[in-house]
Fold this protein.
Amino acid sequence: MRILFWGSPEFALPSLRVVAAGHELVGVVTQPDRPAGRGRRMRESAVKGAAVELGAPVLQPEKARGDEFLESLSKLRPDLSVVAAYGQLLVDEVLALPARGSINVHASLLPELRGAAPINWAIIRGHELTGVTIMRIVREMDAGPILHQAAEPIGSDTTAGELSDRLSALGAEALIETLHRFESGDVTEEEQDHDRATYAPKMSRELARIDWSLPASEIGCWMRGCDPWPAAWTELEGSVELEGSVVQMFSPSLPASEVVRGPAAAPGTVVGADPREGLIVATGSGAIQVGEVKPAGRARMQTAAWIRGRGVASGDRFR
């Protein structure tokens, strides 16, 4: 088949390579180059870099719509559009342009977790199982008929970054099967149970702030679900510089019960700061052990190193 691929981040790369290996890749649509990093230098998407290596035509519209853009797509004569984390909603005229329509690689078991950040929210909400869905794209977000699904367990210490890597590979495998069904004429479409739909809104730095009044288990899910981005964060009270008070936190675990003794401390209070035992913080219910931190302006490090450097001590409080 002649396939037009849409995608931007690294998550989409295995699916792009599947299309290029087994079909005619007529073009790739990806997000425009954007300024990134401290130097704000222009950076291309991961998909653009791979597409250039593959020798595929690359389109980078600010908005994937309009007569001029549609004319560019028409010249490519795609049989099918395959979308994987492109970053924009596609209008009806774009979806209908390929002869066989448009399909999407979505990182959840739809109808659960429709939206921009299903991987993060699967972990934040404590799900034990997620997966990928290949679906036909319709106007309503992630509501199209299901063509194929594959499940993936979520471990108790899985981070969003780790889960993204696994679902990226699983999505490519599911795409292989789906494209084979298209070619053999054996595609079946199953309508979603819309009453069971849940949503996974876009993540942001503001959303990732730690609420210490939550139970320790829920805070642990937040830390893992925001690792590596947008990174769960908090502020250390009493810091001399306001900007220097921000601390990102990673690698949570529940400490042994005998470690946390004595009267209950207010949520956010450091109840343990020992290089051997690590950083332990009181929460709304229980306490949580933090294995890694990234203080403002510094690299991600083990909490033992931060404690030895007198970055935090027992009795300090995060807010």
